[in-house]
Design a protein that fits this description.
This protein is α+β, with helices and mostly antiparallel strands. The chain has 4 helices and 8 strands; from the N terminus they run ββββααββαββα. 31% of the residues are buried.
Length: 182
């Protein structure tokens, strides 16, 4: 396949599937902040979707991307949380994954229906339990650059994480300020 675009030295390749968008779309959030959409996929909210999300992510960023392992772990954690915690039924049947980039960041976004049990948070003391460490790992990998937002109405919830690509990556507070959800 021919590449659709080259972003900061990485190829964005067209990927098959009815929900995958391969075109690169600029997202302008102000004069000093510009996100470029690398890809987007919609998955059925099942445990098998976690592996599919990793595969789609790898197809976009490439096997040799310097942040590959970190991005794949973040995608796994956020999609798993969406599948496990976002509820059940027809309204919860979809999880959307978006990958975006700025000059200094690689951004993973996961949208789901949201949960009636509250907002995603880092467990204070995960102890010996089976779960509770995922967002802590995400926070460590992103150096605190992650967040969540309720989208209002039936639009659900967004959980995002931003991996620094350079030493000039903005702080978590700056990213949150610039990425305000409309």
């Amino acid at each position: 396949m021919d590449p659709v675009a080259q972003i900061n030295g990485y190829l964005v390749l067209p990927v098959g599937g009815p929900y995958w968008m391969s075109e690169v779309i600029p997202i302008n959030n102000g004069p000093l902040w510009r996100e470029t959409l690398l890809g987007e996929a919609l998955f059925v909210s099942t445990p098998a979707s976690v592996a599919s999300a990793r595969a789609k992510t790898l197809a976009v960023i490439g096997e040799h991307h310097p942040l590959k392992d970190d991005v794949l772990l973040i995608v796994s954690e956020l999609v798993t949380n969406a599948v496990v915690h976002a509820g059940r039924g027809p309204a919860a049947a979809r999880v959307r994954l978006r990958l975006a980039a700025t000059r200094d960041l690689l951004i993973v976004e996961v949208y789901d229906r949201g949960s009636p049990l509250g907002v995603p948070r880092i467990t204070e003391d995960p102890g010996a339990g089976e779960g509770g460490r995922g967002l802590l790992m995400v926070q460590c990998l992103c150096e605190g650059r992650w967040g969540t937002a309720l989208l209002g109405g039936a639009r659900g919830r967004l959980v995002w994480a931003a991996l620094p690509r350079t030493d000039r990556a903005p702080s978590a507070a700056e990213i949150i300020r610039r990425r305000q959800v409309a």
